[in-house]
Known about the structure:
By secondary structure, this protein is α+β, with helices and mostly antiparallel strands. The protein has helices at 14-20, 50-67, 85-100, and strands at residues 6-8, 25-28, 31-38, 75-83, 107-113, 121-128. It has a 6-stranded mixed β-sheet. A hairpin with a 2-residue loop joins strand 2 (25-28) and strand 3 (31-38). Helix 2 (50-67) crosses helix 3.
Amino acid sequence: MSSPRDVVFPAGRQALYERNRYSPAIRANGFLFVSGQVGSRADGSPEPGLEPQVGLAFDNLNHILAAAGCTFGDVVDVTVFVVDAEKNFERVWPVVMAHWGEAPHPTLTGIGVTWLYGFQFEIKVIAKLPQTLAA
Length: 135
C-alpha cells in the first residue's frame, strides 16, 4: 500500500483543484513538484490579455510556493508552455523576466504549443523545499 500524497493547496483555491481532480503541488523527497499554473482567476476563468495572464500565472505559482514555505528562489527547474510561441515569445519573456530574480537561475525548458485549454501560457516548476532545523 502506498503512502498518501503530501498535497499543498494555496489558500482559497482548494475547491477549484478538487473540481478539476488534480493536486496543485506535492511534497516528496525534499522537493516540491508544482502542477502547471496558468493565469486563471479565482473562478478558474482565464485572465484577459497575454501579459496579464502571464503575470497572474506567476502570482498563482507564488501562492502555491508560499503555502509550502518556498519562494521562486527555491525553484530549480522550470518548464513554460506558450501558445503560438513564435508570435508570443517576445511579449511573454519580459513578464517572465520580471519574476525571474537574480542569478543563478533555475533550469528552463520552453515549449511552444497550439492549445492550453483556453489559456496562452503555463508554467510548471520543481522547487527544493527549505531545510528545517532539527529540534
